[in-house]
Amino acid sequence: MHSFLSFFRYATLLTVFTCHAASAKGPHEFYAHVGVSTFSAGDRSENGLYTQAGYNYFFSPFLALDINYSDANSFNKDLSPSDPAFTSQARGFGVGAKLMHDVGRIILQAKAGISYLKITHDYWDNSQLAFVETKDNHISPYAEIGIGVLSPWTKNLIVNINYQYQVASDEIDISSISLSGQYFF
What we know:
Blueprint: H1 2-22, E1 28-41, E2 44-60, E3 63-74, E4 86-103, E5 106-125, E6 130-150, E7 157-167, E8 173-184
Antiparallel strand pairs: 1-2, 1-8, 2-3, 3-4, 4-5, 5-6, 6-7, 7-8
């Protein structure tokens, strides 16, 4: 058993250090997303602005820890009793895993994890004949896929198009399409 643990430790360290030495990118990455989100609540939906900023630490060229902050807000701010629209806001921190694969200058990636979100949801309730505001905190799963290209000027910059889906609460799902930049060092 002792020899297996020694071998496992040695193999793990060798893999981590060899992968970073062979990789053109460094183990650290900062990124920012800007895009459009769609809040879905039952049969209703509302569009909004989506932003996310994060940090990735790569254990190998293809596997990283993802830590992020995201913010999604509805464009619609004016509610009226005759309009079935709603407004929503979801802000929070997330942690997950990121898989990344280089195919020449094309970069394929996928992320999954959980977020702690603060959610505000405003809508007109016909049964109460009043505007209702709900505020809630949720731990929610998220998943994202993206495709990008290495910058022609530096191999430390990647530009991506991403799609993210998040179950924000029991009532609201958020899907987002964004453009992002990733910087490695």
